Amino acid sequence: MSGFTIIGTGNMGGAITALAERGGVPVQNVAHGDDVDAFTGDVVVLAVPYEALGEVAAQFTDQLAGKIVVDITNPVDLPEGRRREIKAGSAAAELSTRLPQSRVLKAFNTTFAATLASGELAADGAPPVPVTVLVAGDDADAKTALIDAVDASGAQGIDVGPLARAEELEATGYLQLSLAMGDVVPWTGGFTLVR
Description:
Layout: E1 4-7, H1 11-22, E2 27-30, E3 43-46, H2 53-59, H3 61-64, E4 68-71, E5 76-77, E6 82-83, H4 91-98, E7 103-106, H5 113-118, E8 120-121, E9 129-130, E10 132-137, H6 140-152, E11 156-161, H7 166-181
Parallel strand pairs: 1-2, 1-3, 3-4, 4-7, 10-11
Antiparallel strand pairs: 5-6, 7-10, 8-9
Keywords: Oxidoreductase
Domain Pyrroline-5-carboxylate reductase catalytic N-terminal: 18-75
């Protein structure tokens, strides 16, 4: 793998950069709105809000052809915190129709930025456990490449099935956001799978 290109320089973009660098994966960072001729990474992570996915897909259709494109969004209306209804079923499914020449995956949307940046979750009094990154997609090789990079960072990548599972991942992300907005869990918390 030649590395990651991360579009978006916010909290999630920074957290995914930290994760990739822990695993020795080179990262090209691109600010949302920048004009870039070529992406150096085989994996392009769209660390932008849901509202920006269409714009990014339109701007970079040619550069994203043949790339593994990772949608990390949770389509939620803020500050109300209502989940958006997506006709395609999920933001990732919608994105895959806009980028038919790309291998679209859903990942990173069920983990908060602070948790991803640290690489671990620690419950009160319990020893820390690795962060879990759930990955959905229809291309087995693309999922393996992303999961290998996640695993190299010390986190735990798990294949949850086809891209159709993105709808459930977005529901899980929405649940986690709702819990944090209601002060039930901290923004440094999250879900993990123990195997």
